[in-house]
Design a protein that fits this description.
Shape: elongated
Low-confidence stretches: none
Distance between the termini: 66 Å
Number of strands: 12
Radius of gyration: 23 Å
CATH architecture of the largest domain: 3-Layer(aba) Sandwich
Largest sheet: 10 strands, mixed
Oligomer: single chain
Amino acid sequence: MAAMLNIYHLNTFCTIVAEGSFSRAAEALHLTQPTVSAQIQALERAVGARLFERSAQGIALTQAGRLLHGYALQLLELSARAMQAMEQLQGLERGELTIAASVVPGHYLLPRLLATFKSECPAIEVRLKVSNSRDVRAAVRENHVELGILGERARDEKLTYTPVVEDELVLAVRPGHPLAGGREIPAAAILGIPLVVREVGSGTRATLERALQRAGIPPDRLDVRLEVGSVEAAKQVVRATDWGTVVSVWSVVDEVQAGTLAAVRLAGLDLSRHFYLVWRQHGYLSVASERFIAFVRAHQPARPGI
């Protein structure tokens, strides 16, 4: 192959694969779609093969495209590592840090931590993407982000987990609820409470269901009235009804202190857990990612006591 591969064209190629279309890649890269198309055409000339098949259903990688994609990701990673190494050599602490977080740490834990981190490392550009635990693992595994933080540790030989913050699930109810006056109730009592639960894929839901199974309580016996995709939605329902919701103590500490929600523990259920930092086991970590890992370990907040 006589032509040299252009790193910018490879980046465009990988962005198209990640975004699933030329137009979304152009938007993500802040380029025009004709520029993106021209870069892919130049890359195809360089490798001597078509990289995408186009149809009414969208685009798909050709066999050559699938082969190139794996090498392109490695080349882009090596390029980033080289730049980070040069900056580290010069004593510079800059770069980009994109973190994928599950809902609870993404909404209730990381914002304050990231604000403090940003004040200590102002040259690092920080972005936070929030989804559920399953999607966070996929984003890290597929190298869309270097770092994730979530509340469920699932077996995956490609991922490395390290616990960083303690958490506990509690039953949240409105202040006027019959259970609001007590500190805890027997675990089996949850079967008599109408519940709002998080969606499948949520670490909170997985933690609750595992704890129930260990206590000999089948999760399918729960009186689930509504499934929602966020803690905030669950809290809004609970405030307006006599239903309850099992959520992280981090997500209700402000409301409990303000008296707008009550938290009740479920005796006999082990609902303690950790939030974990997660990254690819054999993946490269940038200076920015390594700096953030060290920061979190040094600034681990204590679990709220309510």
